[in-house]
Design brief:
The protein has 122 residues and is of the alpha+beta class. It is built from four helices and two strands. The model has no long low-confidence stretch (mean pLDDT 80).
Length: 122
């Protein structure tokens, strides 16, 4: 299931039926809080935000020779279910998520995880 509050992908916010569930609402709330927190920390008119953007521009210039690059290159974050316990009612008519834990990942970590699904560790 995908939860997505990106203004660039408004057609992919949440599947309608999943949005009616507690898990769907929790994922939306976590995504919203994460965006609020990261925005407050990166606000360029505060000391911490000013330092953050100075470092971003410095690294962008070192790597690409310019600072004129899309800023969403640096901050795509994924919140994924790490663990869940689901109770299925007899007959399969209903299911309840009785335990859940979410994990926050950077884009590169999420892509690496997806790429390596099914790969056996030795």
């Amino acid at each position: 299931m995908i939860i997505n509050l990106s203004p660039y992908e408004s057609d992919r916010v949440i599947p309608e039926n999943f949005g009616d569930t507690e898990m769907g609402r929790d994922l939306l709330a976590q995504d919203y809080m994460l965006k609020q927190l990261s925005a407050s920390l990166m606000f360029p008119e505060e000391e911490l935000g000013e330092e953050f953007w100075s470092r971003v521009h410095e690294k962008a210039y070192a790597k690409f020779g310019t600072t004129d690059i899309p800023m969403n290159t640096f901050n795509k974050i994924w919140i994924v279910p790490e663990k869940s316990v689901v109770y299925e009612q007899e007959g399969g008519a209903s299911a309840f998520v009785v335990e859940k834990h979410l994990k926050v990942m950077l884009e590169e970590d999420y892509v690496a995880l997806e790429h390596n699904k099914g790969v056996e560790e030795y």
